[in-house]
Each structure stands twice: as structure tokens, then as C-alpha cells.
Write a structure and sequence with these properties.
CATH superfamily of the largest domain in chain B: Pyruvate-ferredoxin oxidoreductase, PFOR, domain III
Strand content of chain B: 15-25%
Strand order of the largest sheet of chain B: 11-10-12-13-15-14-21
CATH class of the largest domain in chain B: Alpha Beta
CATH topology of the largest domain in chain B: Pyruvate-ferredoxin Oxidoreductase, domain 3
Helix content of chain B: 25-40%
Number of strands of chain A: 14
Largest sheet of chain B: 7 strands, mixed
Strand content of chain A: 15-25%
Number of domains of chain B: 3
Shape of chain A: globular
Distance between the termini of chain A: 55 Å
Radius of gyration of chain A: 23 Å
CATH class of the domain at 10-222 in chain A: Alpha Beta
Number of helices of chain B: 20
Oligomer: heterodimer
Shape of chain B: globular
Structural class of chain A: alpha/beta
């Protein structure tokens, strides 16, 4: 049976629920991008499920007119895993935040990634706890003064991309709430990936951590502070596209183009490199003074999805043994008849 | 099989209790299981009590390393593994020291004297050698060179000493088979299957077993052989079954009867892990087992699977229950069906991982934040675990609720003959998902069960959002209004209370009214039943009610409690059901409590009955 899917639009994915994020919150831009991309994918909307944990970002499912499940703090990856294994044909997206995914739910995040469950994960990173009103988060910088750290935080932060790559995630990308076109491209890439697609979205909390990403987003400076990764292209960046990234030993270095240094000397981005160490090196540029912040797809390698393996095993056993017979199972092993 | 060479006395006894005990590495659990299986196939009724340490291999020969397996087999109905033992097989001084007190005076004591050297005695902290200090004079002691004789029997196989010594438990098993005149063929079959890839080990164990049998035949050590005739069980096809196996089979059956795939999310924990092992073998039934990264992922993955339309279960023990509590609250709020099986063990904290207790009752009932009612039911025997798994699943699906199923270490590892049900006699409870988009709201309710519709993702037109935030009645939208909250709290409670319509009235065993009512739940069933049978007909009127449903309680329970002058509640805890009965029925019930990591003995309950009816 073939049916033509009626044309779906952004409006089909909007709910009648009043959106209750603070005015000016970066979440609105992310919601808009997702609502724009979903109808493009050619998948009936009843096949989409959005699952979240707890936090500002986790209110996401209420605003998506799909199936949605707002679960408990940190557990969205585990709930989503149970669903995806049970119903592999569904498109299961996870909306989470830096506290939800990396603090209380850190364990589920790494295990989802190592298993390569077919989930698309949107990690809204604003480097602060918003819903609990302004405590530092596991991605806040050292010295962060917040409600619970009046003298500054002494915690070393997680780099979400490094963490995901350490767990050998098969798809790792980063975008920014306000870079709508870029964000949509990354979302489309994630939608097409099998296995876990992990996207860190740099998101501004204008109430508790306003401007956390402004060196990456302000028009005047952003080109010198970010590098857009493109598969098969050399790592060039800068307002005048006059800087690049080169390998030196086992380190990266920033070089100025010219004076004998050409694009040929630079690293050519290979998102499909089988060794996650390459993407890991890219992810480490963030914290290194003088280096740009990478945006785009750091890693995209093909590997079997968890739910496929799980269900294949069931199919293989059924093919080998035949469908189970309950009567035989109950009377298996040594039995005896009492007359 | 060797023919008898010496004249023997033959004695028929109604029942016998054997306990095999030795080091954790001595294979006592296998030895006991094999004897049990053979007794079951012979047609005896039986009950077993495996008792082993939490350590996989405590230092060899020490007191904490002792592992034991007790089997009570009989020509009569059996309800407990037996208070005392007729035959004790002790493989070393530590095993002898920790177990000999349970041997009947005049009982048979088989000891492996090869393990009674000075160093062995030291490890067991024995000041003198019990084989020489006359402390065993009250028993019929059979000192046997078990290790030497086993090595002699296996010398032609070309095995190293260590491999040969690992067969000595089968020498002891062969002796017990001779003593109770049992065929060895079931154990042969088991060995052939177990050592499919290493036939030499199957052969070695068979030779050791035959040598043990022949040893008894050829030496004058044993003057008497015993016969325990088959029991008169209800007609039907039987197998021997442990509680954990029965529970696993119950869930497979439930999924089939509901027409759903089975999803189990679980994190390994003693004594529940065997359910995961068991279910992971049944993929041909469409069973998916997910070994989660932790207890929380185990239950939340199950919530996800239930959301997707599977019969979803999680299996754990007390510490795991504690970790799952927040997720149980979510399941209550979103009203999805799942079963949480808690195989209780001694606590608090890590407690006694391999020992039994029934102290999670109040945790099951109340261990969540806020008003979070959950139906709770408990299994009473190993075979009953099958029926309780089926019933828990049926109720979860019918009422769209999470259900807690309580078992315990004693039921989980203990075994009994189980009458195999015919598939056509099992209840059927096919599930219908909501597909009609007309008038669909996620929180409308069935008029009798108050169940909300199960609208699984992928159903066109039924897109909706659920979550842990309070819902508006009917629409399911997020809602914080005071009166709506009170209404939803009361609705969730009313839904669990409505399950009472599926809970049969209790009918007391023994006298329907009179002097004393014993009220129990869970694995105390066997000991209470046996004690009641022994104490009835002595002038006092005694009844026994054993509760399968702890929440909701049976509708007529309050009335039944009033029919007796006294109510006594035996429990392996500090009095948790007692607390519930007193709170619910204002009855002046009295507790009888044992918190030793061991089940009640029949004699203990009998003594309590005598005291209470004096």
C-alpha cells in the first residue's frame, strides 16, 4: 500500500500550548528551527516522538505537535532507549540541557552514546541552571560566580563534545541558537544519521547567563572566534579567511595564511575519520587560548544502531528455532506425570 | 548399575531431609539441585533451601565460605525445606562446624576426612578435631576419604589433580543416591548436556558418582537403605521449578496472553539476576532483555517501552527498588502499565545479599514522594511466582498502572514440584490500543477501571504530550490549579482502590472462625501451612489467611479478622503487615517476627501457635 503524504508545514508541528520560556530565550530559536526542519523530512508527524528530562529545555515536547514525553531529570536517554528498541520505526528526538544530560543524567548520556541507539539528541548548552534559578552547571567555566558559588566555582567544566567523543559517539556536531541556517543544516544531517546523533546547541540564557556565547555570536568578532567545519575542506577561518589549523606533532596549531603557508598545509576536515581522536583534538580547541571554537559536524561515522542489533538478534533466533511455543516452554526440561 | 553385594535392611520412611554443605567452590548447589531433580522425577513432593554466601569464593575452608543446599523430599505434602536434617554431608571442618547443630540426634553424618588436616581445622577455627573429640558421638558418623577415593576412581582419565578433586561432590551425590535407592540417569543426562564440549568432564563426574554409589554397596559402612515413596500429588504433568524461573515463565506467558512483545529492563542484582538470565534465553518469544547501565535506566527504559506498547517489566531487589522510586512516581503520573518485581533480601543498604527477608513491604506501598499509590502483590511459593507474574501483568494492563510484585530470596532460589498449566487454561487478556481519533483526550477514563487510553506513538491523529507535571483531568495538559490537583490525586488513588474488584475474597485455611488467626504474606506460606496442619485438632480453633494482594487488600479481610479471638502475623521483618492491619482495621493483632536472613521453621510457628492459644 502506498499513500502520498500530505504536504506538512511548520504550522503542523506547532501546538496550541502557550510557550512559557522567558522572552528573549534562545530556546525559541531552536524550537523554530526544529519545527521548520521536521516537515522537510517527509515523515508523517505521528512517527515523531520528542522526549525530554527536566529543565528549561525539557519543556520542548509541550510545544511540538508530535508525540511527546516530558520525563524526569536526566533520564530522557533511558526512556528514549526503551522506546526506540520497542519501536525502531519511530523518529525519537531527545531534548536536554547541560545539567540534565551532563550532571544528573551523565551516566545515561554516555551509555546511550556507546550503544549508538538511534536517537537524535539536542543538548541545549547555556552553561547555567535556569529552571532552578541560576546555579552554575557542569559546563560553567572555573570561577563562575552564580547563586550557589558566590566566591566562584572551583569545578572544572565538561566539554560536551569531548565527552561524547570519549564515549565514541558516531555523530557529534555543534551549532548555535541564533545561527538558524547553520542549525537547520546540522539538524538535517542528524536526522539522516543512523545511531545516536549528538548535537550541542550553544544557547543563550538571557536571564541568568546573558552573553555567555557573545564572543562567538557577535557579528564583529564571531568569524575570528569560530571555525565552520566542512567535510573535505581545509580548516580555514577568520574574518578575512586568513587563518588556518595545521597539525604539529600530535597538537593542532593556528597559522596565518601567507608567507609561504598555504591551504595545502592545513588539515582537511574528515568527519568520517574512523579514529575519534581526530575529532577529539578539534573539540579541545574551545578551551585553548588563541584557538577558534569549532562549529558543524565534527564526526559522522556509520555504525550499526543498537535497536537494529537488538531486534535482529530476536529475528535470527526466531529464524533458527521457529516462533516460541508456550506449551513447550512451560514443560521444558525433566518432567513427570502424576496419574 | 552395580548389584548389591551385601545384605541390607530396607526401611521405608515418609520423608527425609538431606543437606549438602562444603566450601563455596565445592559445587554444593549443583549437588543439591541434582538430588532434588532426581527426587522430583521420582515423584516426591519437595522443598529446597539453598543457602550460600555473598562472596563468590571466600577463602577456601573458612567459616564464611560455607555453602549449603537442603532438600526435604517426601511421600506426603511438603511445605518447608525441613527444620532439622536426617543426612548431613560435610565436605570440610568449617561446613561441619556451621551445620552440625541442625542434624537430628542419631542422624547420618558423612564427612570428607581428607579435608580434616591440621591446616583445615585451623581455617575453621576448630580448637580440637571434631572427628576425635567425641563431639559427634550422638550422630551416626561415616568418615570417608572422599578426595582420595574420587582420585582413585578417575586415575585413568588423565586429568590433573585439581580437575579430579572438583568431582568429589559427585562422589558424595552417588553415596546419597545409594542411600535413598535412587536412579542416576537424570544426572547422567544433565552431565552430558552440561559438558557437551568437554565429554571427559562428563565422564569424570559420572565415574565419581558411580564410585560413590559402589562404595556404599561394597563396604559395610551402611547397614540400611531407605525408601521414600512417591507423594500423592494432584494428577498432571509436573516439573521442578524455582521461584525466579517461574517468574520469568509467568512474564513470557503474560506477554503472549496479552498479545504484546515483552521488554525487560534490568540491572544485575542478587537475588534477582536469574530472571534476567532466564528471559534473555527466550528471544524466540519476541522477548527483548535490556541490561541497563543502572537501576534507574532499567526502570526508565521500561517506561519508554511501555509508552511504545510493550508489556514492560523490571526486576530488582531492595537497593535497586530504592533507586527506582522517582521513576515509579513518573509511571504513576503518566499512567502507563509496567511491572516492578522486587526479589527481597536482607537490608538495610547492601545488607545480606544472598539471604532472605520480607522487609520491603512498606517501601513498596509507600516508598515514593507525595501521594503515589501502587498496587502490590506477593508470591507465596516458588511455583506461585508464575501465577503472580501473570496476575501482576494482567492488572497493570487492565488498569494502566505500574504494579509491584514482591518475591524474596527464599522463593527465588528455592524449588518445588510445579504442576504445569495447560496453555488453553491460562487467562487471556488481549490489549486494545486506542486508534480512534474522534474525541481522543489522553486522560479520559474507563468507567469501571478508571484506566486512561493507551495511545502509542505512531498512531495518526493521536499526537499528544505526557509527563511528570500535574495533568489537567481529561485533557492531560499541564495544570497547576489547586482543585484539579486534588481531583487528580484522588483519581489516582481511586484507580488503585478499584482493583479490589479483581481481588478475590479471602477464605481462611483451617477453621473459619475461633481462637486464633494467622495472617501471612509471601514466602512464609509453607511454614505457616505446615505448622497449622500440625497444630489443628488439638482442641483450639485456628485459621490461616495468606494474602496475595497487599494493596488493595481483599474486601472481606476486615470481617474475617473479627471472627477470631486473636490475630498473629508471622513475618520476616519487624511487623510491616502487622502495621498495615492495625492501621486499616483497628485490630489488636500481634506480631511474630524473625529477622535472621532465614525463613521460619515450622517448629517456631508451632511454638507461637501454642503460646497464643494457651
Amino acid at each position: 500500500m502506498t499513500t502520498t503524504l500530505p504536504m506538512q508545514t511548520k504550522k503542523d508541528f506547532q501546538t496550541d500550548q502557550e510557550v512559557r520560556w522567558c522572552p528573549g530565550c534562545g530556546d525559541y530559536a531552536i524550537l523554530s528551527a526544529v519545527q521548520s526542519v521536521f516537515p522537510e523530512l517527509g515523515i508523517p508527524k505521528e512517527k515523531f516522538v520528542v522526549i525530554s528530562g527536566i529543565g528549561c529545555s525539557s519543556r520542548f515536547p509541550y510545544y511540538m505537535n508530535t508525540f511527546g514525553f516530558h520525563t524526569i531529570h536526566g533520564r530522557a536517554p533511558a526512556v528514549a532507549t526503551g522506546l526506540k528498541v520497542t519501536r525502531p520505526e519511530l523518529e525519537v528526538w531527545v531534548a536536554t540541557g547541560d545539567g540534565d544530560a551532563l550532571s544528573i543524567g551523565g551516566n545515561h548520556t554516555i551509555h546511550m552514546l556507546r550503544r549508538n541507539v538511534g536517537l537524535k539528541v539536542l543538548l541545549f548548552n547555556n552553561k547555567i541552571y535556569g529552571l532552578t534559578k541560576g546555579q552554575y552547571s557542569p559546563t560553567s567555566e572555573i570561577g563562575k560566580k552564580a547563586k550557589s558559588t558566590p566566591y566562584g566555582s572551583i569545578d572544572r567544566p565538561f566539554n560536551p563534545l569531548s565527552l561524547a567523543l570519549g564515549a565514541e559517539a558516531t555523530f557529534v556536531a555543534r551549532s548555535v541558537d541564533v545561527f538558524q541556517a547553520h542549525l537547520k543544516t546540522v539538524l538535517r544531517r542528524a536526522a539522516a544519521h543512523r545511531g545516536t546523533a549528538f548535537i550541542e546547541i550553544l544557547q543563550n540564557c538571557n536571564i541568568f547567563n546573558d552573553g555567555a556565547w557573545e564572543t562567538l555570536t557577535e557579528k564583529e568578532v564571531r568569524d575570528d572566534h569560530t571555525i565552520l567545519l566542512e567535510h573535505g575542506k581545509p580548516l580555514v577561518y577568520g574574518k578575512n579567511r586568513d587563518k588556518g589549523i595545521r597539525m604539529r606533532g600530535i597538537e593542532l596549531e593556528v597559522v596565518a595564511l601567507g608567507d609561504g603557508v598555504t591551504e595545502k598545509d592545513l588539515i582537511v576536515h574528515d568527519e568520517a575519520h574512523p579514529n575519534p581522536a581526530y575529532a577529539f583534538l578539534l573539540s579541545r580547541m574551545d578551551g585553548t587560548p588563541g584557538f577558534p571554537t569549532p562549529l558543524g559536524v565534527l564526526r559522522a561515522v556509520d555504525a550499526p544502531a543498537y535497536e537494529t542489533g537488538m531486534n535482529d538478534q530476536v529475528r535470527q533466533v526466531v529464524a533458527k528455532k521457529g516462533k516460541g511455543d508456550l506449551g513447550q516452554l512451560l514443560s521444558a526440561g525433566d518432567t513427570w506425570e502424576v496419574r | 548399575m552395580a548389584t548389591e553385594t551385601l545384605p541390607r535392611q530396607r526401611e521405608t520412611v515418609e520423608q527425609a531431609v538431606i543437606r549438602f554443605c562444603g566450601d563455596s567452590g565445592d559445587g554444593m548447589q549443583i549437588t543439591g539441585s541434582q538430588f532434588t531433580n532426581t527426587a522430583a522425577l521420582f515423584g516426591n513432593d519437595l522443598a529446597t533451601f539453598p543457602d550460600f554466601p555473598a562472596e563468590i569464593r571466600a577463602p577456601a575452608g573458612t567459616l564464611p565460605g560455607v555453602s549449603g543446599f537442603q532438600v526435604n523430599f517426601s511421600s506426603l505434602d511438603v511445605f518447608t525445606p525441613g527444620d532439622t536434617v536426617d543426612v548431613l554431608v560435610a565436605m570440610n571442618p568449617a561446613a561441619l562446624k556451621t551445620n552440625v547443630a541442625d542434624l537430628k540426634m542419631g542422624g547420618i553424618l558423612i564427612v570428607n576426612i581428607d579435608n580434616f588436616k591440621e591446616t583445615d581445622l585451623k581455617k575453621a577455627q576448630a580448637a580440637t578435631n571434631p572427628l576425635e573429640d567425641h563431639s559427634l558421638d550422638g550422630y551416626r558418623l561415616f568418615p570417608v576419604d572422599l578426595t582420595k577415593l574420587t582420585r582413585a576412581a578417575l586415575r585413568d582419565l588423565g586429568l590433573d589433580a585439581k580437575s579430579m578433586d572438583r568431582c568429589k561432590n559427585f562422589f558424595a551425590l552417588g553415596m546419597c543416591y545409594w542411600l535413598y535407592n535412587r536412579p542416576m540417569d537424570a544426572t547422567y543426562r544433565w552431565l552430558d548436556d552440561k559438558f557437551k564440549g568437554k565429554p571427559v568432564l562428563a565422564e569424570a563426574n559420572k565415574l565419581a558418582m558411580k564410585a560413590g554409589y559402589a562404595y556404599c554397596d561394597a563396604t559395610e559402612a551402611f547397614q540400611t537403605r531407605y525408601e521414600v515413596p512417591p507423594a500423592k500429588l494432584e494428577p498432571g504433568l509436573y516439573r521442578n521449578i524455582s521461584g525466579n524461573t517461574a517468574l520469568a515463565l509467568g512474564f513470557v506467558a503474560a506477554a503472549q496472553q496479552a498479545g504484546l512483545p515483552l521488554f525487560q529492563g534490568s540491572y544485575p542484582i542478587t537475588p534477582a539476576s536469574d530472571i534476567l538470565h532466564e528471559l534473555s534465553m527466550y528471544k524466540e518469544f519476541g522477548v527483548v532483555t535490556f541490561q541497563a547501565e543502572d537501576e534507574i535506566a532499567a526502570i526508565t527504559s521500561v517506561i519508554g517501552a511501555a509508552y511504545g506498547g510493550a508489556l514492560a517489566i523490571t526486576t530488582t531487589s531492595g537497593p535497586g527498588m530504592a533507586l527506582k522510586t522517582e521513576a515509579m512516581g513518573l509511571a504513576i503520573a503518566v499512567e502507563l502499565p509496567l511491572v516492578i518485581a522486587d526479589i527481597q533480601r536482607g537490608g538495610p543498604s547492601t545488607g545480606l545479599p544472598t539471604k532472605t527477608e520480607q522487609a520491603d513491604l512498606l517501601q513498596a506501598l509507600f516508598g515514593r514522594n507525595s501521594e503515589a499509590p501502587i498496587p502490590v502483590l506477593a508470591a507465596s511459593t516458588p511455583g506461585d511466582c508464575f501465577w503472580v507474574a501473570l496476575e501482576a501483568s494482567r492488572i497493570a494492563l487492565k488498569y494502566m498502572v505500574p504494579v509491584i510484585l514482591l518475591s524474596d530470596g527464599y522463593l527465588a532460589n528455592g524449588a518445588e514440584p510445579w504442576k504445569i498449566p495447560k496453555v488453553e487454561d491460562l487467562p487471556k487478556f488481549p490489549v486494545k490500543f486506542r486508534t480512534d481519533r474522534e474525541g481522543f483526550m489522553p486522560y479520559t477514563r474507563h468507567p469501571e477501571t478508571l484506566a486512561r487510553p493507551w495511545a502509542v506513538p505512531g498512531t495518526p491523529g493521536l499526537e499528544h504530550r505526557i509527563g511528570g507535571l500535574e495533568k489537567q483531568d481529561v485533557t492531560g495538559n499541564v495544570n497547576y490549579e489547586p482543585l484539579n490537583h486534588e481531583r487528580m490525586v484522588r483519581l489516582r488513588a481511586a484507580k488503585v482502590a478499584a482493583i479490589a474488584q479483581d481481588v478475590p475474597d479471602v477464605v481462611p485455611a483451617g477453621d473459619p472462625d475461633g481462637d486464633l488467626l494467622l495472617v501471612g504474606w509471601g514466602s512464609t506460606y509453607g511454614a505457616i501451612t505446615a505448622a497449622l496442619r500440625a497444630q489443628r485438632g488439638k482442641g483450639k480453633r485456628i485459621g490461616h489467611v495468606h494474602l496475595r494482594w497487599l494493596n488493595p487488600l481483599p474486601k472481606n479481610l476486615g470481617e474475617v479478622l473479627k471472627r477470631y479471638k486473636k490475630v498473629v502475623v508471622p513475618e520476616m521483618n519487624m511487623g510491616q503487615l502487622l502495621w498495615l492491619l492495625r492501621a486499616n482495621y483497628l485490630v489488636d493483632a500481634e506480631g511474630f517476627n524473625k529477622i535472621q536472613g532465614k525463613p521460619f521453621k515450622q517448629s517456631e510457628i508451632e511454638a507461637k501457635i501454642q503460646e497464643a492459644t494457651r
